[in-house]
Design a protein that fits this description.
about 220 residues, alpha/beta, Rossmann fold, 7-stranded mixed beta sheet, globular
Length: about 220
């Protein structure tokens, strides 16, 4: 998979939108590593939650443009604008919805779901800021995860059965402090199979990519 060009985004853009970093590139590497699986799955709807600059969903669009609709969602309208800009810069087709998680989408319709959530462990007081519109310079929404760094992630996991298609797959980025083993056990109870697909140590962080699929019946 090609890493999309992002030189069109400026320092001013990154005052409003999360800049691609080591976690973004780990997610790209995981998707590239699993390309054979994804090609066999032949996804029709690819969705990235919290697209930020748009590098992940744009890369997916470049790969699956002939067979899939690639859709980004973000609660930050500036991120939606940046995502569309990145797609255009890289000659990719990406639709973007300014919404929370996958709220507007039809149930069990997503074949490929990608999520780099706000995962940094913070106080719940910081998370209370989410009662304010997640726009403008509130970059706290892109990283502040509340208790265990999982406030947003746990909401998504509770909705996952209604989001993924029968053969759908989720690639979820986690920090060690998010307690990935606990998440794996929780998903097992919900009849999902979750595995640590890739991990990477970077200064100050130990990152994981969790691959989640439905248990075959």
């Amino acid at each position: 998979m090609e890493t999309p060009h992002t030189e069109h985004l400026t320092s001013e853009d990154y005052e409003f939108v999360y800049e691609p970093a080591e976690d973004s590139f780990l997610l790209l590497d995981a998707l590239e590593k699993d390309l054979q699986f994804l090609e066999e799955q032949q996804p029709h709807l690819c969705v990235e939650i919290g697209s930020g600059s748009g590098v992940i969903i744009t890369a997916l669009s470049k790969k699956f443009s002939n067979s899939a609709l690639c859709l980004a969602t973000d609660i930050n309208p500036r991120a939606c604008k940046a995502t569309k800009s990145t797609a255009l810069k890289n000659h990719a087709q990406v639709e973007c919805l300014n919404c929370n998680l996958t709220q507007p989408l039809r149930k069990r319709s997503v074949d490929l779901l990608v999520f780099n959530p706000p995962y940094v462990v913070t106080s719940d007081e910081e998370m209370q800021l989410q009662n304010i519109a997640a726009t403008e310079r509130n970059l706290v929404y892109s990283w502040a995860g509340g208790q265990d760094g999982r406030r947003v992630t746990d909401i998504l996991l509770k909705q996952l059965d209604d989001i993924l298609s029968p053969n759908g797959v989720l690639y979820l980025l986690l920090l060690r402090e998010n307690k990935p083993e606990e998440i794996i056990n929780y998903l097992t109870k919900l009849r999902f199979k979750a595995v640590k697909f890739m991990e990477r140590r970077i200064p100050g962080e130990h990152l994981y990519i969790l691959k989640v699929t439905r248990v075959s019946t």
